[in-house]
Amino acid sequence: MSPEVLRGLIPLQRGDLLSLKGLREGLERITRAYVREGYVDATTGPDLEVDEDRETVDMVLKIDQQIQYRIGSIEILGPNIATREKLMESLPKIGEIFDGTRIEEFFKVNRAILPPDVSREDVNVSRDVKNRTVAILFDLWTCPPTSN
């Protein structure tokens, strides 16, 4: 990503008072941007240099993007074949860059046809570092109601 794009994700400008809230928000935005591009292990950290005489803080962000992941496989357990095919339509295809933010979108888009009790906890994303791929498993089995 270009320095201009990254800089635009930080809500602090030259001359602003240092805000930890703004810094955290900017770091979260940068992390999300990298996750959208398949860099799910990217880390971002500020390197601060304080000049007490001038009462300024210079900040340099260090970004370690790690490796980019692509979709290796997607499996959906639980629903019937027709529902499973409908759910697959809203997911990325094998070989595409893995956008970790699309899982939340998947639940929003498909809320009407998903079992009522499913959540992000029902998704397992496992990384294959050697092949730079992820395997995504949606475990959508519904539990039968319990009787007391």
Detailed description of the structure:
The protein has 148 residues and is an alpha+beta fold. The protein folds into 2 domains: 3-64, Ubiquitin-like (UB roll) (Roll), CATH 3.10.20.310; 70-139, Ubiquitin-like (UB roll) (Roll), CATH 3.10.20.310. 27% of the residues lie in helices and 26% in strands. The protein contains 4 helices and 5 strands; from the N terminus they run ααβββααββ. It has a 3-stranded mixed β-sheet with strand order 3-5-4, with helices on one face. A two-stranded antiparallel sheet has the order 1-2. The radius of gyration is 20 Å and the shape is elongated. The mean pLDDT is 91.
Q: Can you give me a brief rundown of this structure?
A:
The chain is α+β, with helices and mostly antiparallel strands and 148 residues long. It is built from 4 helices and 5 strands, in the order ααβββααββ. The chain folds into 2 domains: 3-64, Roll (Ubiquitin-like (UB roll)); 70-139, membrane protein fhac (Ubiquitin-like (UB roll), Roll).
